[in-house]
Amino acid sequence: MDFSFTAEQDLLRDTVTEFLAARYDLESSRAAARVGAGWQPEIWRGLAEEVGILGAGLPESVGGIGGGPVETMIIAEALGGALVVEPYVDTVVVGGGLLRRADGKRAEDLLSGIAAGEVITGFAALEPRSGYDYTKVATTARREGEDWILDGVKIVVTAAPLATHLLVSARLDSGEIALFAVDFDPADPPAGLTAQTYRTIDERRAADLAFEGLRLPADALLIGNAADAIAATLDEAIAAVCAEAVGIMRKVVADTVEYTKQRKQFGVPIASFQALQHRMVNMHLELEQAIAATYLVTLKLDAAPADRAKAASAAKATIGRAARLIGQEAVQLHGAMGMTEELAIGHFFKRLTAVQHEFGSTDQHITRYAALTRP
Q1: Rounded CA separation 222/101 (Å)
Q2: The domain defined by 227-373 carries CATH number 1.20.140.10
Q3: Number of other CB atoms surrounding residue 37 within 10 Å
Q4: What is the share, in percent, of the chain residues with pLDDT greater than 90?
Q5: Checking DSSP bridges between strand 121-124 and strand 165-171, what pairing results, if any?
Q6: What's the Cα-to-Cα distance from 34 to each of 80, 120, 200, rounded to whole Å?
Q7: If you average pLDDT over every residue of the chain, what do you get?
Q8: Which of 80, 120, 214, 331 could bond 338 through an S-S bridge, CB–CB 3.0 to 4.6 Å?
Q9: The dihedral of CA 262, 352, 84, 80: what is its sign?
Q10: CA 327 from centroid of its chain's CA atoms
Q11: How far apart are CA 163 and CA 122, in angstroms?
């Protein structure tokens, strides 16, 4: 099977990589994440206007370039290698994926805003008792005249503190799960919506949201029966996060090998110690399996729902195992300094730890895969 990229895809990868190498400084991004706004808006504008990747996977009718899953994989991997905290997956992959499956002018306008870098979305789906199951929705939406009234609680809404719009799942009186768009200003939330914001372990921003009689106009309803759209979009998000993790692990493995060549003990580089060589070989093998699993799910995103879901869970479980081993080995091979704020490896390790639980834990996806393959 030929896994080589086209000339256009190679150009896309090189363009994104070069932009990040020139403009994305790790120290500046960590400072913005810790004590600043949580991100760098000028970088987001650059990704939209100078590189054009925010519309790479969106239809041409809304200002995108009509790319597919492979283009998204290439972009996500490049962003992972630079440890970008800006909400690409939350907005372009999840937000764009849900809105592409919606009808109406409201969805088209939001997609155009994403491509232009003007709209940032947060997907409010998980709830206190839902675990990682996005189908367990207790938040309700009821009609009152022409308006909709939302009541409920959503937790760990990543990118919400940066968002201009929230995409909220809620259960209708009919029992179906619907998707709503909510105009949002983190500094001044609408009446009926309160947000508790915080910084996550991997230095990103998230919020817990409470809806108490939040009134929305009729066109806020994007999809009346959104279960299938949410399932398909989340599998696309899993593929993108897997690609991001591959980018991170490539960087971590390369930095660890380089460090062991420079660090000396007993007068020789520690890379010459056979025990450490074995550990680095194991890191490389895990990385190669993660790459293969990411390619598989990327190529399966257009398959039948069961096949797509099976590939997504296989990839997420493989990535979870690889992220754990590679992250922990990298920290140990760097010694105590591997966990310090001053060394990049510590920041990469935190993100790899978070990846293991994003869009479902390793254990959950092993269970899901087993259920999908059971005779």
Answers
A1: 9
A2: yes
A3: 12
A4: 87
A5: parallel
A6: 19, 20, 10
A7: 94
A8: 331
A9: positive
A10: 18
A11: 6
